Amino acid sequence: MKPELLKRMVKGPDGVEFEVEPMRDYYCDAPPTVQHGAYIKIVEDFFNWARAESLWILGFGTGCGAIEMRPLMTPRFDAYRYGIQWRPTPRQANLLVISGYLSTKTLKRAIRAYEQMQSPKYVVGLGSCTINGGMYWDSYNTIKCLDQYMPVDLYITGCMPRPEALLAGFEDLKKLIRAGKAEGANQYAERFDWYKANQKQVIHDWDMPDYNW
Amino acid sequence: MDFEWIKIPYALLTLFIVVNFGMLLGAFIQKIGARVGRRHGIPIWQNYADLIKNFGLRTSITHGVMFYLGPVFRLTGGIGLLLFVPTIYGSEMFSNLSFSGDLILALYFVFFGTLGMALGAGESGHPHAAIGISRGLSQVSMAELPFALAVFAVALQYQTLSVTDIVAAQQGGIANWTLFTNPVAVAAAMLGFLGSMMRPPFDVVIAPQEIPIGPPTEYHSSYLALMQTNRAIFPIAKIVIYMNLFFGGAASWPVFFLKVFLIYMVSVIVGVVFPRFRVEQSIRWFLVWAVPLGVLSIVLV
User: Fold this and answer.
1) Which residues of chain B have pLDDT under 70?
2) Range(s) of the domain holding residue A93
3) Is residue A122 part of a domain?
4) pLDDT at residue A7 in the model
5) How confident is the model at residue A29, as a pLDDT?
6) Does A30 map to a domain?
7) Residue B61 and residue A213: Cβ atoms within 8 Å?
8) Which of A2, A65, A155, B101 could bond to A126 as cystine, CB 3.0-4.6 Å?
9) Is A191 part of a structural domain of the chain?
10) Residue A93: what pLDDT?
11) Is the residue at A104 inside a domain?
């Protein structure tokens, strides 16, 4: 644990001493709960349609696959046509694209970003690195199978997948969402202990609360 | 003065028309911007899907009472601005709550949403939100200065503080518009207009590429949906004021739609041509170009 994360007494500018506990003051460590959709089916279907037509991707690139997302924003492929937009903050995004290999150091950030997103949220694994490690299959500091650390709704294969493949993949994700099958956030809540155990197995300097929304 | 209850459904009808017009116009403007960049841009119904999606999110978190109230204040600012000025001139149905001193109230409401947003985003505790707020407030204040000066010039010119009277004085042909009777004031106000529409070159406050997205960094789900609704209403409400003060108002809905679109296009054309200003550059720009025009317009009247 880093010294700045320990519980300690701090003297404020006005001379008053107070206690600071960064791990509790700045985060909430309440575990996620399973969230049910609307009880009326037609309402939930309507919401699912809207969720599918308005995919907001978190602008967060982890590996070389991030470079395949840039052509999607520009005139050649123009993903905005399909209701796919990029948001700079995890609070507003609902699709996390893990774009390529994920080092254990980046995994920590990816988990924090994922947990700050609001349910329902989706994860797409991009390229073979997220499926079986790809060309980094024997690397000592990348994860091999993304499925074990966060619930993945869809993989897009290739090394690298072309922007066309990404567009096709997003269309498939839309079908999953419309069918109500993309419930990754609930899966994460149900198997929370299993995911946390897997995450802690590879992240050795775990200096954050178990759940930090 | 007795209150007429029929005004409530009339006001709701105005609101309904303006919200839908604002959503479609916003998407249409974005499409125009995309076409300039040789893209197709978002579908025309995209704003509705985004809005429903955000209302339909299952979880949301709060940072405190002001975090709730921020978007509410913002929406109040937009709706208040819209309802206290006559939307359609000469129509009992769509004049809503306009009264003899409404010009001053409208000036206040332009600022009200920004202040509410400052309180709400401040409570979110995110450093990006705090930076965005300080940038936004300084820029909006600066853009407001030439507009306020122009409004005073117009009020002096027509010797009234009632928007309805100002519109009435401009009837009877294009030559009676303030645009032609007091061009200096209109020029100052239109420069201020560029600064308050949150489009380039003055959109550094909410630009996703800068300090990520500025004040609304922490806002999500229903909070964000409220702010999106306001983003549909507020530009229209602001343009309604400009239309009433400077461009002869509108006597029917088709004229209203056309004039609002054309006035909006002024900021869009400037936006797609010029690159983004930093905040200190835009403040200097307003001080050098817009404020002297505003002062001049008051002197000339």
Assistant:
1) 1-2, 211
2) 53-202
3) yes
4) 86
5) 67
6) no
7) yes
8) A65
9) yes
10) 92
11) yes
* Backbone dihedral angles phi then psi of residue B278, each to the nearest 5 degrees: -75, 165
Residues 6+ apart with CB under 8 A from A113: A58, A60, A90, A96
ipTM of the complex: 0.88
Q: pTM of the full predicted structure?
A: 0.89
How far is it, in rounded angstroms, from Cα B179 to Cα B185? Answer: 8
CB B15 within 8 A of CB B9: no
Give, for all 213 residues of chain A, the pLDDT tens digit: 778 788 888 888 888 888 888 777 766 667 888 988 888 999 999 999 999 999 999 988 888 888 888 899 889 999 999 999 998 889 899 999 999 899 999 999 999 899 989 989 999 999 899 999 889 999 999 999 999 999 999 999 988 899 999 999 999 999 999 999 999 999 999 999 999 999 999 998 887 777 776
CB-nearest partner of B212 from A89, A119, A213: A89
Cβ pair B53:A81 closer than 8 A = no
What is the predicted pLDDT for the residue at B91?
Answer: 80
Q: Does B46 touch chain A (CB under 8 A)?
A: yes
What integer pLDDT is reported at residue B216 of this predicted model? 85
Write the residue in B50, B218, B219 that is nearest to A54 by C-beta: B50
| CA B134 to each of CA B119, B131, B138, B142: distance values in angstroms, whole numbers, following the listed order | 11, 5, 6, 12
B49 vs A contacts (CB less than 8 Å): 49-50, 53-54, 83
pLDDT of residue A5: 80
Residues of A in contact with B203 (CB under 8 A): none
pLDDT (0 to 100) of residue A170: 95
CATH (domain of A74): 3.40.50.12280
Q: Structure tokens of A104?
A: 């254990």
Answer whether A93's CB lies under 8 Å from A56's CB. Answer: yes
Q: What is the DSSP letter of A152?
A: -
Q: How far is A96 from chain B (nearest CA, A)?
A: 16
B131 CB within 8 Å of a chain A CB: no
A-chain CB neighbours of B34 within 8 Å are: 78, 80
DSSP string covering chain B: -PPPTTHHHHHHHHHHHHHHHHHHHHHHHHHHHHHHTT---S-TTHHHHHHHHHHT-S------HHHHHHHHHHHHHHHHHHHTS-SSTT-TTT-TT--TTHHHHHHHHHHHHHHHHHHHHHHH--HHHHHHHHHHHHHHHHHHHHHHHHHHHHHHHHT---HHHHHHHT-SSGGGSHHHHSHHHHHHHHHHHHHHTT-TTS-TTT-TTSSTTSGGGG--HHHHHHHHHHHHHHHHHHHHHHHHHHS---SSHHHHHHHHHHHHHHHHHHHHHSPPPPHHHHHHHIIIIIHHHHHHHHHH-
> What is the nearest CA distance from A3 to chain B, expressed in angstroms?
23
Interface test with A, best of B30, B39, B227, B228 (most A CBs within 10 A): B39
Q: Count of domains in chain A?
A: 1
